[in-house]
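Hey, I'm writing a tutorial for new members on how sequence and structure tokens pair up, and I'd like a real worked example in the thread rather than a made-up one. If someone can provide the structure for the chain below, I'll link this post from the tutorial.
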Amino acid sequence: QVQLVESGGGLVQAGGSLKLSCAASGTTFRTNAMGWFRQAPGKGREFVARITWSGGETLYSDSVKGRFTISRDIAENLVYLQMNSLKPEDTAAYYCAADRSAYTINYEYAADYEYWGLGTQVTVSS
């Protein structure tokens, strides 16, 4: 099993920044890519960003491209999401997820990821 624990959420003003962390433990060798999703109240889980463990290839949703950066620390089994220029519409619970597949056309779909953290709340005030 793979355990994922997110941290770093909080309350920030619009235009501010936050950095989320995701600590992976357990049988992490079974995973080849990591993703961040978010879910606002009353909405479905939305893809934010993805990174492969080995090559560090990244993908972003159009809504965060240019503002958010995903990165990973292989030695520490950590994945980060640096969020800049935050907007009120970024308010959501943010979830870390792990995918056994490194490359997939379904990377935007939550069902493609096998392991999930419990989430961390990000609130952006206007």
